[in-house]
Amino acid sequence: MINTGRFFRLLEISKLTQALADLKDDEVLDIINHFIDNSPNKEGADKLIKAAQEGMAIVGDRFERGDYFVGDLIFAGEIMADVIDLIKPIICGESKGNITGKIVLGTVKGDLHDIGKNIFKVMAIAEGFEVHDIGIDQPVEAFIEKVKEVKPDILGMSGVLSLALNVMKNTVDTLVQIGLRDDLKIIIGGNPVSKDACEHINADAFTTNAIEGLAICKEWVKK
Ligand code: B12
User: Is the pLDDT of residue 18 over 70?
Assistant: First the structure.
């Protein structure tokens, strides 16, 4: 027998990817609001975020092909920010309350993309992490300063531009030089990260998915 509820949800999720790719903001928000009005849960929110991320990847591809322009990237970013704002209470609603660990988080120098970082941040806070977000376009020194100040369990670096990988490497190299690398777990996230990049950068883990990243962080701080 067909599970119509599940079928409907799958349909809505694939519609979200397409609506975001086509920059149909009203349609995107309708789908999200429909989800919120119908017994939303964290698992569903995770699926919507993944679908929205796929939509953003299509926006990027269209930009690369010359079908979209910078204005379209900006608009896609705005729609995605609205999506996160709407879904945030559902993710945070199940917040654990007690602190599980400390994370210093930021987007590296030269890179202004922060949507993915912010999604990871919301999820990490919901899981009880104390997150110190230093923002976008952050140089090596800013990460080092915050690590010294907060003494986190985890350093999370985000970057969506290819150039971000060099800055991530410089940050880890500096941590090694000043003797702080061994006290930290380091995770890198964003579109260009890969296993090879992770090894080259000397990070402990990489991810292009906030849910996976969070699972790794939780494992690291498990008492
Ligand atoms: C929206 C967007 C923008 C917006 C960003 C708005 C904002 N506030 O972030 C704006 C308009 C500012 C922008 C600008 C530019 N962009 Co842009 N942008 C995008 C786009 C379409 C989507 C990015 C996004 O938000 N994705 C959705 C999120 C949810 O995915 P995500 O970032 O991967 O995050 C997920 C995971 O990776 C993970 N994650 C992310 N960070 C972290 C950190 C940790 C610690 C963890 C655990 C997990 C984690 O969790 C998230 C959820 O699962 C991408 C296309 C793409 N494929 O990504 C291009 C893209 C990144 N942009 C690109 C370019 C070229 C530019 C510009 C140079 C354009 C220009 N000519 O001006 C500028 C550069 C500005 C700068 N210096 O940074 C290229 C980059 C090419 C490259 N290889 O370097 C891309 C890939 C488009 C393309 N295909 O050409 N962009």
Answer: yes
